[in-house]
């Protein structure tokens, strides 16, 4: 096959302890998946059906700097557990869902909150606020066999040494097996798919010069400087 121009490189994430990389296919993000975060965003945290938006694969970044994006004056941090799939399918049963997980990483869903807010008011999609260059800094992937299952564990984000977000994976409204099963009823999941599983409360703005440090036990720390 002859291309009219050179195609873009495949986005791939490092895998801890190996020279192999994880080729990314799609990036799904779960909205408002922690009750306290739903409340701080002005929503009822009852178990309504989950909803999703997408980032682009090349929004993922392993750089340790985050370039403040154009067109906004209000960029917010959202720390998240990231699940990376090694298997997929459609209509996956909850009991079978965890067998699809290749590994886990820690990520930030950086958000142009002002642009997202305008889109919400107008009933428009969120991509302008979510899917911009470098909007998802992530760590290396830790294989599922090494990490275990994300049933519980502290998740935290410090900004300039002060804790801004603090929660526990037990606080997810929709647990990861349920999320995978539900998502597979809407899309055909496949190896290389990435799921950002939602953020705890405490989201807030960043400015140039801020140092963000994310933590989940068992994963590499995520340290990012806003530039």
Automatic annotation (TrEMBL):
One Pfam family recorded for the sequence: FAA_hydrolase
Keyword Hydrolase in annotation: yes
GO molecular function: acetylpyruvate hydrolase activity; metal ion binding
Domain of life: Bacteria
Sequence ranges assigned to domain Fumarylacetoacetase-like C-terminal in this UniProt record: 27-226
Keyword terms, alphabetized: Hydrolase, Metal-binding
Protein name, entry field: Fumarylacetoacetate hydrolase family protein
Lineage of producing organism: Bacteria, Pseudomonadati, Pseudomonadota, Alphaproteobacteria, Hyphomicrobiales
